[in-house]
Amino acid sequence: MIDIRFGPQVCGDLTGGTAREWLVTDGLGGYATGTVSGLRTRRYHGLLVVAGETPASRRVGLVGLDPAVLFPSGARVRLGAHEWASGDVDPRGFELLERFDLADGLPRWRWRVGDVVIERELAMTYGRSCVAVVHRLVSGGPVRLELAAACTWRDAHGERRADGPAPRVEPVPGGAVVDGAFRLAGPDWTPQGQWWLGAHHREEAARGLNPDEDLWYAGRFSGELGRPGDTVSVLAWAGELAEEPPPATEVVAVARARNRRVVAAAKPADPVEATLALAADAFVVRTSTGPDVVAGYPWFGAWSRDTMISYEGLFLCTNRADEGRELLRAYAATLSEGMLANTADTGRVEYNTVDATLWFLHAVSRHVTVTGDTDLGDELLPALHGVVDAHLAGTRFGIAVDPADGLLTQGGTPGTALTWMDARVYGVPVTPRTGKPVEVNALWVNGLAGLAELTELAGRDAGELWRLHERAGAAFRHRFPAPTGWLHDVVDAPAPAYPLGGAAQHDDDLLRPNQLLAWSLPYAPLEPDEPTVRRVAGGLLTPLGPRSLSPDAPEFVGRHRGGPAERDGAYHQGTVWPWLLGPYADAARRAKMPVDDLFVGIEAHLTEYGLGSVSETADGLAPHAATGCPFQAWSVAELLRARRNGR
Fold first, then answer.
1. How far apart are CA 573 and CA 559, in angstroms?
2. What is the maximal distance between C-alpha atoms in the chain?
3. Which of 180, 217, 497, 570 has its Cβ near the most Cβ atoms within 10 Å?
4. Nearest in space to 47 (alpha carbons), one of 222, 295, 233
5. Is 344 helix (H, G, I), strand (E, B) or coil?
6. Rounded to two decimals, what is the model's pTM?
7. How far is CA 85 from CA 20, 60, 124, 467, in A?
8. Would you give the distance in Å from CA 476 to the centre of its chain?
9. Residues near 379 by Cβ (< 8 Å), separated by ≥ 6?
10. What is 266-326 written as a DSSP string?
11. The pLDDT value given to residue 500
């Protein structure tokens, strides 16, 4: 894997150290996460964040373990780091960090206090909500190490305050149980019981959200570090509280060995692919209904659109086709009126996308093509034919095939945004894209051809599907090319002066990246030509991926910053989306354009934000600072797929 390590100039600087975040996951949707400097900058940062019934329904438990070194002289040096509502940063243990690195995907810190060097390693148990934190004396000593347990038990999206009830801490052998929800275990537990008031999260402040909470100092562990190699370790776990995990050092060793196996199974061609294969593993989780995909950490749950866009990269490019098969079968069971369920972050089953179902058709087709698993194709064939039939007849939200040209249209209703560009501000879609969006119809043409091939593989007649495919493809080639030299983003859209459903229509020729799918998909309706792809790249391409809107458009917003309304307003109006590098790379290759240097910027990004992973978004203007989730499934999946398919 690529070497990710930082010295004191990054670790000890709050700007550089807190801009870089690490993530360790438990395979269930829970995680531990924080910053290189150890300072919590988000409400989501913690050492034990527990998934609920769905990956999105997470709760924060163990917030931190603040180390303090006690010397024989009586001196006490604190190694933790907190920022407070007053603006103070205290303690400032990051100033004593001499190194941070990711070893096999696991974070490791090293503090130096004179000749005393203490190392911390952290890992989670795969398949169980359990974190192990190991402290080891590297040199110097003897010293005593204290570990102050800062706790809460709250929804990951909220805060807990001292004006409410304090967490209930019950003593048990070797530690305590907090609010009946999670257990702490380690050496020499000493209960405390005190509020730490006004812990501040600077990233939440920057996002226009409530930045402060109160933490409960539940107690502390302590142990002697007499000579190099001695350890003091703490375990924290939820679920079966009476079932004690293995020793913390064993948890770390097992996690390290598993990560190596995950990478080896993917058969990476180089260190970047190895890093991406391990990053992909974080998003594949096991729920009560089987495998699923977390769209992004630390705040997203499962979204069917993200899952299907990510499918090939996460499952087929990492040799996890068996898990992928199980996932596709489970998602097929959610089809209703020809639409795939979108569980989203609410935990409710919703049907509110025009494109997720078409991405599902694509995922099934790619699964069968890559793996040769015709049995799955045969099994799902009736459901997939039902998707086409429902779209021909018309389904929810006015989604239907236009009998005039065979293209797919979405009628839309006020307040809906059915494509991946689905941001809303105060309930109003920023980019409703009512009519016939270009990527939706590229996916429709692609899906018809893919389904026709699956039908023929099953020994059935696919003549009608091929006729639908040819008709829609011909209409696409006629309707979508624009006089500007690129493709319309939406055709037959309501004219701006008319409400949804109004009589007047127009064709939207704003330069957006959605058209890339018209050239990049396996059964794309168009063959790309170099001049057109270069025009698109000239207006949209950045080192981290294509912008969502060209900078010369009046609606362009170059910074994805501010409060929720500001960020949602900018989300698809110029913000960079790294996942779109995949479609761009495919289109460029098909246009016989060189792409050898295309990934240089995004590969460097693996050490800049979410360490070893790829962010959700970035600013449309230089220096294209990363925004959104630091760890995003489709960003990782598409980079891995595009690099691997280009070999």
1. 10
2. 87
3. 570
4. 233
5. coil
6. 0.96
7. 22, 20, 31, 65
8. 32
9. 329
10. H--SSHHHHHHHHHHHTTEEEETTEEEE--EETT----HHHHHHHHIIIIITTT-HHHHHH
11. 52
